[in-house]
Design brief:
By secondary structure, this protein is α+β, with helices and mostly antiparallel strands. Helix content is 47%, strand content 14%.
């Protein structure tokens, strides 16, 4: 078998052998019983495969490049139990904490569409249900601390090549300090609530892959949802209205705006880690940078921090249209070639 490039990494013959071995252990079957192992082009943290066995279809997740730095598997296991009990994700069949692989039921679904109002409402209501769940995990997810931990794993020669990096960093750290005093309660969070992690059909919706889950700020979930798509400012306000079921207060709005920027900042570091290890991430890095750069300016102003009028006007215009900047030069600096949609 030739190596296959997937969005989450390279699917090699060695990975295939390990996948088959694990499937046989879980289901007590023979290799000849396993049919149609194929990469699923979803997600950019892991190599994701589908396979058929005894009339059923399943999804196998193999940890991707750098996931050992990004993910605490023990925490994921506990989160999986909480969300299974809450009916938020009932797809799990088996997982291995030490090796990081997971087998889940395959759910027939359509591609989640950020622009579809019905998809958005169902996803945001599912997040709200997660945030309201009474059973809390004891692991805190500090977004800024996690970004710093990722930074420490990146070759210094490949760190900080985003334009205006230090200026954005300064704004993000100020926002994190201000947001801490908004009185928004911490809760269970998913930490990567992007389109590829929502499995949706007419009857049900699941939120899968709890690798970044923990006890943290609900703004990180709304932030990862927003930063995962090309949302305009009016889209963001509609999302917040849906989340609260009413127009958010000024404090609530500034808090979630701040966390949209902080989330973009976190995933800028995730991008640099992936690039430093030779894996491209596609156009989504432009989205993460866009929200970190522009929303940090707008959110700071909402906290009463003075920002230059010209910068605020430019940021507002960029956010109103979700106008992205071309960052393909980052790939060239690191020596990565990838197709950009």
């Amino acid at each position: 078998m030739q190596d296959i490039q997937t969005t989450g990494g390279i699917f090699t013959e060695e990975i295939r052998r390990r996948v088959v071995l694990n499937i046989c252990k879980v289901f007590d079957c023979k290799e000849s019983d396993i049919e149609d192992i194929a990469p699923v082009q979803e997600g950019i943290t892991n190599v994701v495969l589908s396979f058929k066995l005894n009339g059923g279809k399943y999804v196998y997740r193999h940890p991707g490049v750098g996931s050992e730095i990004l993910v605490e598997r023990g925490r994921e296991t506990i989160m999986q139990k909480i969300v299974e009990d809450a009916g938020i994700d009932t797809t799990l069949v088996a997982m291995d904490v030490d090796e990081g692989w997971r087998i889940g039921r395959y759910i027939e679904h359509w591609d989640f569409d950020y622009s579809d109002l019905n998809d958005m409402v169902r996803a945001i209501m599912l997040l709200r249900r997660l945030h309201d769940a009474p059973c809390h995990i004891r692991w805190n997810f500090d977004v800024i601390a996690k970004a710093e931990a990722i930074k420490d794993k990146i070759d210094p020669e490949k760190y900080g090549h985003f334009p205006e990096f230090e200026e954005i960093k300064d704004r993000i750290y100020k926002l994190a300090e201000h947001a801490e005093h908004d009185g928004i309660k911490k809760c269970n969070i998913h930490g990567d609530a992007r389109d590829v992690n929502f499995l949706i059909n007419k009857e049900e919706i699941h939120l899968i892959d709890w690798e970044y889950g923990g006890y943290g700020d609900p703004g990180f979930d709304i932030g990862s949802y927003v930063c995962g798509g090309r949302h305009k400012l009016e889209d963001i306000d509609r999302i917040l209205f849906t989340y609260y079921r009413h127009k958010p207060s000024d404090v609530q709005k500034r808090h979630f705006y701040a966390y949209i920027a902080i989330t973009g900042w976190f995933y800028m570091h995730w991008t640099m880690l992936k690039l430093s290890k030779g894996q491209g991430v596609g156009l989504v890095k432009e989205q993460w940078y866009h929200f970190a750069k522009n929303m940090s300016i707008v959110a700071l102003q909402m906290y009463g921090v003075a920002v230059p009028d010209g910068d605020l006007d430019k940021a507002m215009e960029a956010l109103k249209e979700c106008r992205l900047e071309d960052l393909s030069f980052l790939n060239h600096e690191i020596g990565i070639c990838e197709a950009i949609d």
